[in-house]
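Quick start: read one record
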Amino acid sequence: MNIRDIAKLAGVSVSTVSKIVNKKDASISKETRERVLKIVHEYNYTPYSSTINNATTTGSIGILINSLDYVDHALNGMIDYAQQKGYSPIIFNSFGDHKQELKNITTLGTKQVDGIIWDPINESSLINRNHIESLDIPLVLVGQMEEDIALSLPYEKAAYYLTKQLLERKHKKIACIIGDDNSNEAFIAGYKQALFDYNLKFENSLIVQTLDYGINDFIIEKQISGFVSADFFKSIELYNLAMQSGLKAPKDYSLLSIRDETEVKYKNYQDALSTITISNTSFGKYVCQSLIDLITKDEALQPFCEEMVLNNTKSIGLPAENERPKILVVGSINMDTYLYSSKLPHNGSTNLLSNLSKRPGGKGLNQAVGVAKLGHQVRLIGCVGSDSDSNNMFQELKKNSVNTEGVSRSDDTETGQAYIFVESSGDSMISILPGANAELSPAYIEKNHDLFSNVKYCLVQTEIPIDTVERTCSMATEKGVEIILKPSASKTISDMLLAKTSYFIPNEEELASVCPAFDTIEKKTEYLLSKGVKNVIVTLGKRGCYLRNAEQEKFFPAADFSAVDSTGASDAFVSSLAAYLLRGYCLEKAIQIATYAAGFLVSRDGITTALVDRMTLESFIAKKEPHLLLKD
């Protein structure tokens, strides 16, 4: 095969072929150049001048790879494109060995290739770049190179796209699953950027590299609502682990992943999981095309781009907590100081204490923790100081999976304090220093209006400013939320507030303060109903409680528990009542279950640690009165 044969096959003059093979073809069109070079390469034509001119084309390209990872679709894409264009690829693999990588570079330098594709082992490999540059031929780098223009798969763009899909669906607790290769850094960068653009803080604890059964706890406890994954096989692993706990996407969590288009044996999972395809084959072809474009001087190196499109939306939805109705608590947050003695203090006496302890408390915090322990999603709006006690409050709430988006810190005062005297019989008395609770304003409630969304019941207590209570109840009413009001530390309740209340739950002393003009419980509750209250439930301590509404009045006995500390019994009652009303129980059964919850609390020391969890409560009731657990 000589130059005349090449010219004849290409349909051009001999001089045109000569200019092209000797790279003096600036005036020749791209189409003619490609046609001639394809024939030159296919027929392995070597011009005479190549023996004395190193600038001539040889029709071969070098491919330097560093592991078995490339002996798949990306490499196949490079080879396929090279052969389509009439080039012969010469491939060397260093298998991650720097010494072998240098040997491959110097060996390839003797092959008189027209250009080289190089996937360095890492950044330190670039010290050997001078050996390639001395050949004065085009080079395309592949991988995540910080200091060079290199072609790489769009992991950063993919992570940003996937994370954004979850963020747009109101997810805020998004974990990032990474693989075991060098794509991790880019994928995490895209994930971080998406969080930043949506004003969410990056947490290193949400980067997941190893999966085990414990991941289900994070889903169940609502610490993670969605996952973006750089590894399709780990996505399958998560999917199967979650299934073992009865967790399904997108009902309980959302999962988005990248995958390669050739993973056909996992088609069942491809149909079940929402993924975007990153084509290694297409990437390999693009890398080779970029090198050949540089060889033929057609255009500058451009980054690899691939359209981001989800194959389906079967494993992506709204956060589980956004789909289920929840409970909102607005109230006080205190550091409780317990003072134990044989009897309660009284005027003119000196009382010796037997013990003292400090624990997080306040009716708002107690009720929120009580609801959370009974298995519901709960949000708390309250205020703490900027002291060390405030940190204890956040830790207690986090430990019990209470949403604290509505809890603010005040720079001007300390966290509220409660001093609780407890005598050996279990009776108690409380003195409160409001502290930061007094800073909880109507304006702050309005600022947190989003926390009223998808709420069924709003639990409010009057240990916070009464105008804040009124604004809370007004906003709740506007959104169709039922109000459960505990009138603690308040002498009077306005008619406007009573008219908005679905469940009014005073003890005997609080009832007397609110209704001083009446002498019996029946007359007092009748008065409250006349003011618009839907249901009045008066807690009577050891005697149980009394229900009054338009349809009925009824006494319920207390559960049979030995009293250790009665402090917080009403909080246990209120939180349990709300929890079982939300679960669909009728009011009578919810009250009876709530009396058991209060009984558990008084039989234990403390409040948050004494509040009963759902499994313990229902297991106990199932032995005593199993019919209570059957919904009507």
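The first helix runs from residue 3 to 10.
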